[in-house]
Structures are given as structure tokens and as C-alpha cells.
């Protein structure tokens, strides 16, 4: 009799477990679908595969982690990024976050973007990767020796990104266009790093080295 | 009529509203009259058994007058509207009152950048205050604005001012406004020209402030080193004027 009761409760437990799995899978699938749907607003500039588009100053997004995407979208939405009069591309991006109604939407679209496949991008700048390799040693502490980024340190992957975009962001950090808002903690960590780079050529060298890592 | 929906916030808002009212009442009068007559005719001369429809050529004097009299009356209304429009257009768009302050407005997809003159009151100097999607102005002050667009056409629209001015890439368009002190507070600025995907999200906020509030805002947004320089410059100028006046 006792054995039967145990068996019954075991079956009930198993059924409950299966039901919860099914529920989680359904909710997750709905979130994925929502993310895909929301991403349609981004396609015009970032492309269907999140490959980016230089004509719109839109970076590639596919190689970025879900956590980093959530953080940046939140910064744009809360006005911590893209609110400097000199940041033409940022000012264009900031209102786009109005299409995301809240944290759930941001999480859904970030999850979808992170699921897309990224591809290496061709070099367009005239940097010296050899010189850049030495200077990159400082960056490696957060972004990793392979430039794949580290979510634990909130540092994004730099791989499979356009060199013109990485250069533009280094300039933005150095000139205080990005990373100066009091609530942009991770941006303010990056800013002094960019200020270590003496001039544009030094930035191009680093970017050229990062490009070699992508390939 | 309009002020019940959106308050009048500028010195020329009442003129725009008056023009709007005149157009609405005149056009409304003719609209109701014509459609009333049309419906009356539809009912009065509806199909009846044994009555054959007439074909009217409009050649008799009576028939011609039935067309010409309302025609000239409507033309007379048009002339009234045209004369009023001329005066209002001149006041809002052609006249440029001597400004007390200037502000530079730059439109881009999909944001507004505003460059305020800062403590020295001169636009284009180091102490200019640049803001995104926030325009801070002093009530009762005559402003001249310099409107630019960096990419495509936009339109600077401030509903409480009854102001709408297109911004065209490659051109600097000048205009003016003077906010009434009855609208101290926060109001809408919007883009009124289709400018791309997020045109609908290209809104900004207008802060109409008292002179004291405005001075506080400027002081809070001026870096210390510029604040000192500005105060020093004012002090020097004042002492020079004092010396000149003996």
C-alpha cells in the first residue's frame, strides 16, 4: 500500500515536472518569437542578420552577447548613451529604443540578436596590426586576449565588428561623447582606457590588430 | 476655438488662432449651406410616379444668377481670408523683431539639438549650453532661432506657439518667438515633416521658465571655469561703465 502511494506521488511529481518544462518551453518560445518580431524594427539599419550597414553607421550586432546587448539597449532607452549633440549615430539609435516597451522586450530582442550567426568583416582602415598588438595588451585585461569579451567584466566581444565602428567608438570614448553620463558605469570604465591612446593612428593600429583576431 | 485644446503660448499665437477661426467659420458656413441645400434638393425633388426629370442647361438669367451670386460671395470670403493671411504671415514669418536672445536648433534623424547662448547671452561662444531634446527659454523674451537640418527635411513644430517651420539640409532658416508668461511650464516640441522610420518618435520638450528659473538653469549647466570668466567679464564691463559715468 505504502509502495503504491509512493509510486502515485512519484508519477504526480513527474507529470508536474513535465508540465513545468512544457510551460517554460512555451514561454521561452513565445519570447523568442517576440524577439524576432521586435527585431524587424532594427532590420532597416542593422540588416536582417544583424550584420550592420556602414551607410547608416549601424554596427554589426550578431557577435555581441545577450548581456551586453541588454545593457546597451537599456542605456539608450534611459538616456545614458546617445544623448550627446555630437553623437549623430547615437542620437539616431536612442529613439529607436522607444519601439521596446520595457525590460521584457529588451531581453527578448537581445536574445534573438545573440542567436544570430556573425561573420568576419573586411578591414577598411590603414592601421598597423603589429603596433596594435603591443597596445592591445591593455585591452586584453577586460576584452580577452582573443577579443571575445567577458560578460563577467561587462566587456563586449570586439570580434566580427566593422573597423570603422570600433574606431568611431574609441574616438567617442576619448572625446567624452560616450561614457560620460554619471549612470554609465561601464562606459566610464572604458573612457580612461581610450584616453591612453595618443592619436587616431594608435586607435587604427589597435583596430587593425583586432581585425586579425576576427579572421 | 483652438485655445480650448492647446493654450496660446506666444505673442503671435492669437493671430494664428483668429485666422484659423475665420477660415473655419467661413468655410463651415458654406459647407453647411451647400450640403443642406443639396440634401433638401435630394429630398424635395425625389423620384415621383408620373413626374419626368427635367434637363436644365443653365442658360436662363435666373439659373445663371443661382450660380454666380454664391460664386462671388465665396470669392469675397476668399479675399477676406487672403488679406488676413497676408498680415499674419508677415507678422510670423517675414518680420524679424530685434532679438533679446538667440538659440540654434539642429534637427537630425531623430533628435533635436538645441544650442542655448549661455551666460554671456551670445550664441557661438564657449559657454553655449547644448542639450538634446530639451529647449529652455525665458518667458517674455524675444528669441531669434537659427534652424538647421543635418540629413533630411524636418519641421520644427511647437503647438503652443502655433509655430511650424521646415528645416532643410544645407540651409539656415531664421525665425522668432516670444513666449507668454502665462505658459510657464513644460510643453511639446514635435517634428511635423515625415523624416523617416522614427519620425513619430522625434519629440522634444520645451521648458518655458521665469527669468529666475532660467538663470538658475544656466548657472547649473555652465562649467565653473566659464562661470567665473563670464562673471569676471560682466564685472569688468560694469566697472568700465561706472568709470565712464563718473
Descriptive report:
The complex is a heterodimer of chains A (215) and B (246). Chain A is mostly helical. Chain A is built from 9 helices and no strands. Helix content of chain A is 59%, strand content 0%. The relative contact order of chain A is 0.13. The mean pLDDT of chain A is 90. Chain B has 2 domains: 2-94, Helix Hairpins; 101-245, Immunoglobulin-like. Chain B is α+β, with helices and mostly antiparallel strands. In chain B, helix 1 runs antiparallel to helix 2 (61-94). Chain B contains 4 helices and 10 strands, in the order ααββββββββββαα. The A-B interface holds A 41, 44, 83-85, 88, 91-92, 94-96, 98 and B 106, 108-111, 113, 115, 130-133, 150, 197-198, 201-202.
The counted number of beta strands of chain B is 10
Task: Classify the secondary structure makeup of chain A into a structural class.
Answer: mainly alpha
Q: Write down the CATH topology of the largest domain in chain A.
A: Cytochrome Bc1 Complex, Chain D, domain 2
CATH architecture designation of the largest domain in chain A: Orthogonal Bundle
The helix content of chain A is: 55-70%
As for the number of domains of chain A, it is: 2
Largest interface: A-B, 12 and 16 residues
Oligomer: heterodimer
How many domains make up the coordinates of chain B?
Answer: 2
Sum up the overall morphology of chain A in one term. Answer: globular
**Arithmetic mean of pLDDT of chain A:** 90
User: CATH-wise, what's the superfamily of the largest domain in chain A?
Assistant: Cytochrome c-like domain
CATH class of the largest domain in chain B: Mainly Beta
Shape label of chain B: elongated
Total number of beta strands of chain A: 0
Strand content of chain B: 15-25%
For the termini of chain A, the CA-CA separation is 67 Å
Could you say which structural class the secondary elements and strand pairing of chain B correspond to? alpha+beta
Terminus-to-terminus distance of chain B: 56 Å
Task: Tally the helices of chain B.
Answer: 4
